[in-house]
Design goal:
Shape: elongated
Strand order of the largest sheet: 18-21-27-22
Strand content: 25-35%
Distance between the termini: 141 Å
Number of helices: 3
Order of helices and strands: HEEHEEEEEEEEEEEEEEEEEEHEEEEEEE
Number of strands: 27
Amino acid sequence: MAFDAQKPQDQGYLADFPPEMREQLRAIIHDEIVNAGLLMGLIPGNAGGNIAVNNGSLNQNLNAAMLEGKSAEAFALTGHTHGAATVSSDGMMTAADKVKLNSIHAGAEENQNTFSVVDVGGTLLQADNKTDTLTFAAGNNISLIPDAVNDRITIGLSGAVESANAAGKLSVERTIAIDGKVNAAGVAFDGTRNISLNVTNVTADSCTGNAATATRLNTSRILRLAGNTSGEASFDGSGNVTIDTTTTSAQCVEEMSARNGFKELVKACMALNDYFRIGVGGDNNGGYAEIATADDGNEPIVVRQYTGMFQNLIRTLTLLDGNGNTTFPGHVTAQAFHGNADSASRLEGHSLAQIQAMATKVAVLSGTIAHGATIPLPEGYTEEQCKWMVSMTYPWTEYKGTRGYVTCYTEGRIVRSAYYWKAAGKWIWSGGVTVNYIVIGVK
């Protein structure tokens, strides 16, 4: 609370008087609310006769015995003077300062950081006066860019330089080539890298010693074959030659009439570490010919037909595959077959042995065929000479997550096949499927 002139009240409660009176006394003492207008008849101010106030203004006619703790004798009087200083005695300044002052020339200026002489390639450019100007002039293909704010000059190149002691690259890329009796195709060159010219032709007026290459030999040479096969041809390098050969032992690689055992006629390595050979062998009129592969015992032996110069493969006869099986690309025709076939042991109530006994020629044709297609016949056979049958490729199939069954039969030579799947308790036909067929023709 603060001082309140209305308290204590005349009509207040006696019990409220002690705390209110204590607060009034506290406010008078601590809040400094007493404002005295006069002190011994004097008012505060800055004029003469006032109680001096420290408010930043000059107090008039203030008479103080001490100033900052010093008496009047410590300060100089108004109108006092100093003696002139000399190089040997103090005056207004010390003698040492007078010596320094005397060493300064008349008209001297404050020290400046500047160059009085500029050395340009041994030529000295000297300032003629204290405010002389050094001028930069741009020569051919030189640019000067001044920066007055940062006191800087940027020196650069401008345009094409007609000649220079050195340069990083050519301003215009050039092509270097060789023509005449030595020819090399042009190669782009701009000076940033080394180049190599590919010399493709050299024509010499004369040549001595050995040449690395030539279009023909100076002296023709004879290419001659000797031994059981003989022949020769003249060759000078100007063109290909063909040697007309003669074999003294026709169809004979080596005379074998007086020896037994095995002889390799051709041997080669294939596929890194597999082997192939053609050889002949046998003892005492029991000779044989061999075509063989070797390494793991599963390297196949095949016979192939191509078009062109071995360009497009047409068909392959596998004599032996990796498992020892034989595969024919077309029909197999024989005077007779012995034993039972893997795909059928009987046909329309007759065994293969019975069929073989009844005929002199049998043709077998098999493969896969689509629903609605016509079963083919072996070449040269009529329907009356053939019997055929079809079988399922798969006994069941799956459609929309439901497994169904397959059926197949023939109407004449027309194939009928289908698969069924079950939906809502009913079997639904869902189209034809591909099935197997076999045809046996007998003449």
